Amino acid sequence: xxxxxxxxxxxxxxxxxxxxxxxxxxxxxxxxxxxxxxxxxxxxxxxxxxxxxxxxxxxxxxxxxxxxxxxxxxxxxxxxxxxxxxxxxxxxxxxxxxxxxxxxxxxxxxxxxxxxxxxxxxxxxxxxxxxxxxxxxxxxxxxxxxxxxxxxxxxxxxxxxxxxxxxxxxxxxxxxxxxxxxxxxxxxxxxxxxxxxxxxxxxxxxxxxxxxxxxxxxxxxxxxxxxxxxxxxxxxxxxxxxxxxxxxxxxxxxxxxxxxxxxxxxxxxxxxxxxxxxxxxxxxxxxxxxxxxxxxxxxxxxxxxxxxxxxxxxxxxxxxxxxxxxxxxxxxxxxxxxxxxxxxxxxxxxxxxxxxxxxxxxxxxxxxxxxxxxxxxxxxxxxxxxxxxxxxxxxxxxxxxxxxxxxxxxxxxxxxxxxxxxxxxxxxxxxxxxxxxxxxxxxxxxxxxxxxxxxxxxxxxxxxxxxxxxxxxxx
Length: 475
Prior knowledge:
By secondary structure, this protein is α/β, with parallel strands linked by helices. Helix content is about 30%, strand content about 15%. The strands form 4 sheets. Strands 5-4-6-1-9-11-2-12 form an 8-stranded mixed β-sheet, with helices on both faces. Strands 14-15-16-17 form a 4-stranded antiparallel β-sheet, with helices on one face. Strands 7-8-10 form a 3-stranded antiparallel β-sheet, with no helix packed on it. Helix 2 packs across helix 8, helix 4 runs parallel beside helix 10 and helix 7 packs across helix 8. The radius of gyration is 25 Å and the shape is globular.
């Protein structure tokens, strides 16, 4: 059969076009598959759920965080694994309940003894990530961060809180200037008179992000020392908040109510704390703007969270309390939601559709399993699990069962006593096991945990208590 020249030319051009199109398409798919997202984790110390404008605060102005939340998947049923710093952070970093040597100590955790196949940071790093940690670590010395998988760290080590937020940061501003606290490394060497710790920290996070190898993704965790005590802020911000608080009508809301061995603060009326929250928000805004300026915001996953509830409670020793978690009950140190419910939202532009999830029960121990799932599609089979299906609108975890155990209570400092808790779906049971006292709440109807329904529901109470004790027996 005779084939015309014109037909051969058309056939040749068609093949060339199709091959070229296929090559371009393949290149695009390859780029999309290999262009892993950057990750920025912003973790705030002692920030209560209601310390943000988006969560109802009428005192603290947090426009940058509020704007970030509106672009994110917001989890309104997110919990810390413990109502104080060290175990909560241990749980987040390891993806497990904070259980060590058969108990949940309130302090003394170390990040050694975690095998590589259970280490989220090392697994993410092995997939090609630059890793860095800034700020409050409180889980060992500087060397422990490298051992755990972080290439770089700044101002991170034993310190659980600053000696001072005002330069010089490792000199107390009261008494003789000495302190028993661990000093924060690095910061005084890059600071000058008049500097404020949050600003210095943010400067160094920004410097790191700006200078990273642009051919490799980064995972940076910025763990604010704020808004933990000492309550120290910039004078102009304190004065502004004094005026705003003075003119705010708290109506008939009492300033304190009795709780446990002490008091619960019921008003957000501390001008220094308000100033600290607002400075923290400004620094979050600086980092968000930097990502835009570097044109990497669309391909950067941002996780915002807090380690537990705000400091609203004291015990037999009266304290300068920072904030109120109202309408949640109690605060830091307690297993009521005021102590363990935290803000948590996740943003990844063009990947996670912004929404508010009021039903799914998630925990801080789920954060790194989720990040590992996103970056490597792997699971390390820990207590925490990836909530990527929720982010992708493929699942909801409304019926999840989760646990807490607090055996190192602080009746002197935060007014709490030894307790354990279980949440199963809408129901939450708290057991003060030394006092043989149990309370049951339907969180969906009673988020303030004021209506104990254990007597009206004896079978459910016993069922949940049995499940809680069964979990504890496996420590």
